[in-house]
Design goal:
Blueprint (H helix, E strand, L loop, with lengths): L2 E2 L2 H21 L6 E7 L3 H17 L2 E7 L5 H12 L6 E4 L9 H7 L11 H8 L8 H13 L7 E5 L6 H9 L12 E5 L5 H8 L4 E4 L17 E4 L3 E4 L6 E4 L4 H4 L5 E2 L6 H26 L1
Helix pairs in contact: 1-10, 2-10, 6-7, 6-10
Length: 303
């Protein structure tokens, strides 16, 4: 039976480390890092996500604020508010909770957030720096996957990895962190990486996955990765999260991309859903906010 990778516990450890760093930061005369979230509309899932992030911020000593807007807000109004936050020295991190309403261009909004305050790591300049293996704010879920792999002691140097999913916010950055040179700024993992996606024929997906020492899947397709697709002892990182109705109970439950009960009999390590990557995403948001606060303080002191 595979060893479970306890994302909740590892996230808790990271948050405890951050709390001490923030206390030390404040003891040096600095103010608390500050995170502002923008939430548009009243989608229950988005509201829950933002509330969880704000609670985590409070737990580690980050000041936080949520600005709520109705779905009638125009793109121009939103961009104007982001510009105001960019120019507010009391704000270190800006988080735009996605998705935004259809009449607002998501890419334009993400690019409007100052690179220095882009704690989600979605600004195209920060993504570009990541692709060039340069120091930057890295998207939180990919950074969380990297941290899980490293803290669990999974060997990556020269290993085969398969990333299933090619989204620009998750799959692509994860692939970059897996394959890039560990000697450079992103402290990447030196794997040989294959990227698969929704148009990869099932038999080809199976063939690629069977070669993998590490599989990271992020598609939102329940049960996509089955036990016959993995090799004995592989490490399985399940980023997918989908709410389904449990046929045996009729109740809603969260599942990942992996047929968990069967795959865990064959894998070496595996993340559960929930309780795997999810808590790490929130912990990395807190880490990015602290990094942003330090970088901005250094910039301010340089002038």
């Amino acid at each position: 039976m595979a060893q479970l990778i306890d994302g909740k516990q590892i996230a808790r450890e990271i948050q405890e480390e951050l709390q001490k760093k923030i206390e030390s930061w404040k003891a040096q005369g600095h103010r608390s890092p500050q995170l502002t979230a923008i939430l548009i509309g009243d989608d229950p899932a988005s509201t829950t996500y933002v509330n969880n992030k704000m609670k985590a911020a409070a737990d580690v000593g980050i000041e936080s604020k949520t600005e709520r807007f109705g779905t009638e807000i125009t793109e121009e109004q939103l961009l104007e508010r982001i510009d105001q936050l960019n120019n507010d020295d009391a704000v270190d991190g800006i988080l735009i909770q996605l998705p935004v309403p259809n009449h607002i261009d998501e890419r334009k909004v993400c690019n409007a957030v100052s690179c220095d305050k882009d704690v989600d790591g979605f600004n195209e300049r920060n993504i570009g720096r990541l692709c060039l293996d340069m120091n930057t704010l890295i998207p939180c879920t990919p950074l969380g996957v990297q941290e899980l792999i490293k803290r669990t002691g999974i060997e990556t140097f020269g290993k085969n990895a398969v990333v299933v999913g090619r989204s620009k916010n998750v799959g692509m950055p994860i692939a970059m962190l897996l394959h890039a040179d560990g000697r450079n700024d992103t402290c990447a993992m030196d794997c040989t990486v294959t990227i698969c996606h929704r148009f990869t024929p099932p038999q080809e997906l199976k063939r690629f996955c069977q070669t993998a020492d590490i599989i990271v899947t992020a598609t939102g397709v329940p049960g996509l990765i089955t036990s016959d697709m993995i090799k004995e002892g592989a490490a399985i990182i399940d980023v997918g999260i989908t709410r389904i109705t449990d046929p045996s109970t009729g109740k809603k439950k969260l599942v990942g991309d992996v047929d968990f009960e069967e795959v865990r009999k064959k894998a070496g390590l595996i993340t559960p859903v929930p309780g795997g990557v999810g808590p790490m995403t929130v912990a990395m948001l807190m880490k990015n906010t602290m990094i942003a606060a330090k970088n901005l303080a250094k910039k301010r002191n340089a002038f």
